[in-house]
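Hi everyone, sorry if this is the wrong subforum. Our group has a chain we'd like a structural model of before ordering constructs, and none of us has done structure prediction before. Sequence below.
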Amino acid sequence: MLLTAVVETAEAVGATRSRLAKIDALAALLRQLEPEEIPIAVGFLTASPRQGRIGVGWRSLSSVDADHAAEPTLTIEEVDEALDTLAEASGAGSVAVRGGALRDLASRATPAEWEFLTRVILGELRTGALEGVLLDAIARASDRDAAVVRRAAMLSGDLGQTARLALTGRADELAAIGLEVGRAVLPMLASTASTVTEAVGSVGEASVEYKLDGARIQVHRYGDDVRIFTRNLADITDRLPEVVEVVRGMPVHAVILDGETLALDENDAPRPFQDTMSRFGAGLQRAQGPDFTVLHPWFFDVLHVDGRDLLDEPLRVRREELGRIAPDHRIPGEVTGDPAVAERLTAEALDAGHEGVVVKAIESTYAAGRRGSSWIKVKPVHTFDLVVLAAEWGYGRRTGWLSNLHLGALDATGEFGGGFVMVGKTFKGLTDALLAWQTDRFQELAVRETPGTVWLPPEIVVEIAIDGVQRSPRYPGGLALRFARVKRYRDDKRPEEADTIQTLRRMLRG
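Answer:
Right subforum, don't worry. Here is the predicted structure as tokens:
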């Protein structure tokens, strides 16, 4: 297939706010693809080419000097081969190899195709073709059940290959995709409520559990082999030997656990989140000196035990299994339908230095990769995970630093065109250390620059505390954050896990 067909589809999807129209356009394209082209096209449409990050940034792309083709002739497989060349270039001479490959690709692409490819490579393709829309399009194009397609994608962790199997394989092959010990799955996510009474009223009888200020981990064990994944599915096993030791001590042969890990101080109170995340960097410092941060694991769910998948079992059953295999490492909580008990648990969690609680419907199943209404997090202070869209250069004492952040919320329904919707700016809460870090990091990631502002791909998640929201015509979502301030950067979260504009808009009605 010619690349221009993908470009035209992306343009059509980006031009409409109708979710159904987006699905129709994507499904029509998917039906025309050859089997080997399907994963490639899906990667382009989600700005996630199968090669991943290929070491090419905005400066390299903007400096390409080439005359573009007058007519489209470039196929998507030829583009995929060019991205292979770019991704594989390393060592001495790699800059020249990348430069030549980019010039060749640019000269073979039309202006519209090159603009599209630039946005794909930079990860800033904002068409509203988020994974949820594309999953529905895959189901439409393949005439498969949408729930089966979604489950297969979440459990395999590969949207492109799921699309290929749905479109070219048998229905039973797609349905057969399940949990595999050692292969990470996308975690279940929680929605947000203002009070624990509201949350309990919404879900009924629930497991009310402490919300720890730690890092999400998913742990797989088969025999003595233990693998630990972050919420972004990165393998960090070699960095957390103390967690490996804990899980090896459990009375099981095969298990998949969902939980958190965090550092504690001498009084067993949680240390700052950044102390925990310092262990997630590149490489583990083995020296057991005074600065070495020991991490402690706590688990709140179990997805598989010794050949038995528990995804579709109610939380009540999963809690019982977790209590059996990891009684000393289960996150504190109680099962209750009484708001007064839930309020007491919230107070206890806060007194212990934690963030709040998560209220989980006791009969709920585990919806991998979904943010449903059966898990609800409650924090006394309104905090939201947003995406940094740009940053402005500071002035006065902050001259030379990138300071004022442009913040975006996820448009989960496509109501505002998909992608991320700007909801406000803030420079509050930034320490000198954070200012220095973000100045260096943002310039590395920049996709373009305008006077006074550096624009970023929507991939850095930051936790923002706010006093509320207010109606505002300034931003496309019709609201603005009130008294926004930075709490921390969330290296453990993907942009797809950011809070939504729909969630923020519900606060206008609160």
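For your construct planning: The two ends are 50 Å apart (CA to CA). DSSP finds 18 helices and 19 strands in the chain.
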